[in-house]
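Q: Convert this sequence to structure tokens.
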Amino acid sequence: MTPSDEERRLKDLRDKIIGLGETSHRKSYYPQLREQISDLHLALAALKESELRYRTLIENVNIGIFRSDVATGRLLQVNPALCTMLGYASEEELMSTHVSSLYEDPGERERLLDLVRKESRVRDRKVKVRRKDGTLITSSMTLSAVNDGSGRLRMVDGVIEDITEKELKAEALHQANRKLNLLSSITRHDITNQLMVLEGYLTLLGERIEGPGELALLRKVEASAMAIERHIAFTKDYQDIGIHAPQWTSLKDSLVRSLVTIDKTLLSVHIRVGGYEVFTDPMVDKVFYNLASNVIKHSKATTLDITARKEGDHLLIAFQDNGVGVKDRSKLFTRGGPASGYGLFLSKEVLGITGIGIRETGTPGQGARFEIVVPPGLYRPYEHRPKAAP
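A:
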């Protein structure tokens, strides 16, 4: 059947539009167009696969994820984990709730938005959140800003973790440590009182004994009582181990603070540690003091150099003196070791709370060198610390 004039006209017009007509100057572009369309199909397929992976991730993680509109206070997107955490039956039900009603203190939302506007991101903010049934949970919240073209805050993306159980366990551990600390204090007080009574009786007994043999034995008993008293007094300095949570501490400030009572006429101390913070137990001041006082007591040194430098991915804090050094380091950090061993044992325990190590690497006759080894993640440059929330 021969095509009509109208059919031929429409065919020519169609061919010209897509670049196939004999008279079309776009005919030569068809292979490129076909290649671009093929690339577009591939890109769309990759985009769909990426969206599927993203959606699967959002739906399967066990922490809450949301996006909220700043102006309206409405939730624009939530994941199933957040619904479960807050006790809502579906995403739609939760998204119909105003964000402010989810806070124990509705004013907390505005304070958080002010922080997001200033800093673009708020990390690990502890916030009390209200479930659908009215019960409160403790959450750790991280928020990120989503700004419009003019830089104004338009939406907020958030991640919420329920840390209620973790907080309860931490509080229980804190209370247990506090009670142990109190028990230790009471026990130490009672022992000290009994030692005072014992020393009084020994003094009276010494006035009645005349034989040199008996007096020698009495002096040994007195020496033992005095040793017990020193040990009891020493434990008082370390009774707060583990009572307070570890925290980021300025290395230089801690060293200056802990060594302020060191007699500078007996030991010249030089501190060159740069600007680092270390995550450790607050009792670290006692560790630094103990290391310096041991230099005066045992090393016969006149100078102590304290330095800090990176060694691989660790931070190495070194206490180097110019004394006699350590001949036998096998029992340095053991309980009941040499005269300084008990203090070093406790120092090792304090540092070990957050995974920090200590070792002695000096050369006998050339001075002792104690190295505190801080693993990655437990130190950071002081000038790069994140801003603290008000």
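The longest strand covers residues 136-147.
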